[in-house]
Write a structure and sequence with these properties.
about 350 residues; seven-stranded mixed β-sheet; alpha/beta; Rossmann fold; Beta-Lactamase; about 40% helix; 2 domains
Length: about 350
């Protein structure tokens, strides 16, 4: 093993040892870890020069990956550090220099309880068909939540699960389910191409790592329409915003059709944030929407702005508004009021909710 590869592995091990979520390598800075949402430079390491950064990054690339990176100027891939850790890695150029962001993927998939997610999320592992979306900002645990739900299906149902990811993050170890994990770029050319092909592979459950374009969205909705349980993610902040985003991605002439398809296939949306805890670490706050007849009608009639009110008033059906989730965490002493207000989409209503309780 080369000296640079040994050094790169050492930095990755350091990331795992300190429980960091990310490792950043940028010219002109020491290597930086993200721990509990905070960026912390590794003080014992040297400031990275252009040559050092490039040598570190290139030490873990295959010749094919190196060629692809130099041609397209950025590259996403996964990397396993023996049996110790697994990383999702993004490498790119900035100001002409090579940079890298490495996201640590825990080797063990944690359960819904271990992740401090609402127990009502177990319901998503019991559906046999429909469309489920996990949404939220980048780095707020969408993939981890999806992995927990998929792994619950894996341990409880004799289903065929097919995932389409870029790159593959969590490795699902087959239990009761039959599992195929396909990586864009390695096993298939694109998300929507893999989605078109997957319907001929006899799947029960399909997971699409990310819906990046209308073609992928249309293919995912069609898969749900044809009797499959489909999971995916979007970078949106709420259930209503998620529905808006999908519909608005299509040309005006197609929007009525996609609205109708969503109304009939969507079964739920989980929108989450990871909030800094008072005692350190982070804890999820979740908005959870289950699609009932009222919500289906609002989607069909293009009255999506009224969905937030349905979520707020449907607690007995298992729905949770983001403000209710944040208020609960404040009352339990998990997070501060300041943090709750920072992450709330409506801080005024949050304060009213806390006063009432």
């Amino acid at each position: 093993m080369s000296e640079w590869k040994q050094k790169m592995h050492y930095l990755m091990e350091l990331c795992a040892k300190h429980g960091a979520s990310d490792l950043h390598l940028i010219v002109g800075r020491r290597p930086v870890l993200r721990i509990d949402g905070n960026l912390i430079p590794i003080s014992k390491e040297e400031v990275l020069t252009p040559e050092m950064t490039q040598n570190l990054v290139f030490s873990i690339l295959t010749e094919e990956q190196k060629e692809k990176f130099l041609r397209y100027k950025d590259l996403d891939f996964s990397y396993s550090l023996e049996d110790k850790a697994r990383f999702r890695i993004a490498i790119y150029f900035q100001r002409g220099f090579v940079s890298a962001s490495l996201r640590l993927i825990p080797s063990r998939i944690r359960t819904i309880e271990e992740l401090n997610l609402p127990p009502v999320l177990h319901r998503f592992a019991k559906y046999s068909q429909g469309f489920v979306l996990v949404t939220g900002p980048a780095g707020h645990g969408k993939s981890t939540t999806l992995a927990a739900i998929l792994d619950e299906i894996n341990h409880t149902r004799m289903d065929h699960i097919v995932t389409i990811e870029d790159p593959i993050e969590y490795i699902l170890v087959q239990d009761r389910a039959l599992i195929d994990q396909r990586e864009v770029g390695t096993d298939t050319l694109s998300f929507h191409r893999a989605l078109r092909a997957v319907l001929r592979q006899d799947p029960d459950v399909i997971m699409v790592g990310e819906m990046r374009d209308p073609e992928t969205m249309a293919a995912a909705v069609t898969a749900a329409e044809t009797g499959h349980l489909v999971f995916s993610t979007l970078h949106t902040n709420s259930a209503s915003q998620t529905i808006h985003r999908i519909i608005d991605s299509f040309p005006a002439a197609q929007q009525n059709q996609i609205r109708s398809q969503l109304a009939s296939t969507l079964v739920g949306v989980i929108s989450q944030r990871l909030i800094p805890r008072i005692e350190g670490g982070r804890i999820p706050a979740c908005e959870v929407m289950f699609v009932n007849s009222a919500i289906r009608n609002l989607i069909r009639e293009n009255k999506i702005y009224q969905i937030d009110l349905i979520i707020e008033t449907s607690y007995e059906e298992g729905m949770i508004s983001l403000n209710r989730s944040l208020a609960e965490l404040v009352k339990r002493g998990e997070i501060s009021l300041e943090q709750a207000e920072f992450y709330s989409l409506n801080p005024r209503d949050l304060r009213l909710l806390l006063k009432e309780s």
